[in-house]
Amino acid sequence: MEVRPRILDCPANDEHIVRRLGKAIVVQWDALPGPVQDLILKQAVLMHDQNRVLQLRHKIKAFIRNWKIVE
Fold first, then answer.
1. What are the pLDDT digits (tens) for 49-64?
2. What is the torsion angle, in degrees rounded to the nearest 10, for the CA atoms of residue 38, residue 34, residue 17 and residue 15?
3. Which CA distances in Å does 25 have to 10, 28, 37, 41, 54?
């Protein structure tokens, strides 16, 4: 599967869907196969966003590690 920079410019009223999908991925992270986790991480780093972040892959992995088991 090809991973390349992308823009997902959805309307503000659909942002809640993106947030819910992202949160669902975080809490189900350990159930995803390793190659799927890697693909998601690679794509997340390449997604266009208004915020520039250094060491984004590391920060995303730390975020998932901290929040994947939220009750």
1. 878 888 999 999 999 9
2. -20
3. 19, 5, 9, 11, 22
CA angle 12, 50, 2 (to 5 degrees): 90
Domain boundaries, the chain: 34-71
Tens digit of pLDDT at every position of the chain (71 positions): 789 999 988 899 999 999 999 999 999 999 999 999 999 999 999 998 878 888 999 999 999 999 987 66
Query: Amino acid identity of 14?
Result: D
Task: List phi, psi (to 5°) of 7.
Answer: -120, 130
